[in-house]
Amino acid sequence: MTLSTESTHSSSPGGPGGQPSKPSPGGASAPGPVRRNAPGLALAVVGLGLAEGVHALVPAVPMLTASVVLGVVAAHVPGVHSFVRGRGRAGLTTAGKRLMRGGIVLLGLKLSIGDVLGLGWATVTMVLCVVLATFFGTWWLGRKMGLPGDQPLLIATGYSICGASAISAVSGALGKDEDDEQLAADVATSVALVTLCGTLAIAVLPLLHHPLGLNDLQFGRWVGAGVHDVGQVVATAQTAGPTALGEAVMVKLIRVAMLAPLVAGVAMAHRRRRAHEEAGGKEALGTRRPAIVPLFVIGFLAMTALRSTGVLPAGVLDAADTAQQLLLAMALFGLGSAVHLPSLARSGAKTAALGLASWVVVAGVSYAGVLLTT
């Protein structure tokens, strides 16, 4: 039974069902959702502004990457970290979950069915193979290495699809309680790892452009198939010019399109596992059965279908792109603020090893795929 957060005027010391009610400070009524989330959301807005400033000063650093890093910094700066882990926690958690899902829905407007078909089935098949090899290879290796909780699944998702956005999307399909601390820790660790490797790619991959014998088109497709976040793809590919950038973005958006079936597959797998546990008499406390297709994934597909009709004017698409960037930046700041570096350091060796191995897999498979299809 879930206790209501609404205040009561009863003088009885017990809550519904005889359970004690949580006392409110000073005897005041519990704050509503707006007041509870406002401090953390306000800090996320400040983080958004700072991330925009960093990107303006150093264009090579994507705004979304800066948002994650600033969130991590805020969680450890004296005088701020107590607010982040106290009054601001509710709003920052809301940003990391709710705003992220809104950004993912709007991300669907970047993709159209015509764009995908325009690249040809060979390229689409290549991207699908990269996603599958990276996802299942990373997941299997993470489980073999004994990484805790849902980290193997979340890291595999981030590396194979679209970084922190995919991690957040899959975490929402696991059917777990919104306040699950272990899941929050796993998400924060996975986001930190995939952001670090994606940021390193911005510096490392351009150095390999010519030594690997890639022309601009091939380099763009390699970046699009092998780098995690959309912003990191843009920052990496633009070093080779407009041809590489255009190819990179299109290939990357095909990977983004894989998010919908992946999330649906994870949700269905967890529904089957939950049904099996319930049939075996195992209790699943603190969990809920996830939807077969989460609502935000339906929204993502709906936006892609809408974009494919061609009825949306350029101004609307530009506005949606801006809104999507703002929502994702605030969400990533919220996710970054949940990272606890001492805890990350304690499990850092295995996590870093998995991240490095996954990075090698996605870069190697995508490189081979590009050479075979161009």
Secondary structure class reads mainly alpha
The percent range for helix content is: over 70%
Backbone CA Rg: 21 Å
Q: Give the count of helical stretches.
A: 17
Instruction: Count every beta strand, where a strand is a DSSP E run of 2 or more residues.
Output: 0
Mind describing the biggest β-sheet? none
Terminus-to-terminus distance: 58 Å
Coarse morphology: globular
Written as H for each helix and E for each strand, in order along the chain, the element string is: HHHHHHHHHHHHHHHHH
Mean pLDDT rating: 81
How would you portray this structure in words?
The protein has 374 residues and is an all-alpha fold. The chain is built from 17 helices and no strands. Helix 6 (121-144) packs antiparallel against helix 17, helix 9 crosses helix 17 and helix 13 (259-279) packs antiparallel against helix 14. It is globular and about 55 Å long. 45% of the residues are buried.
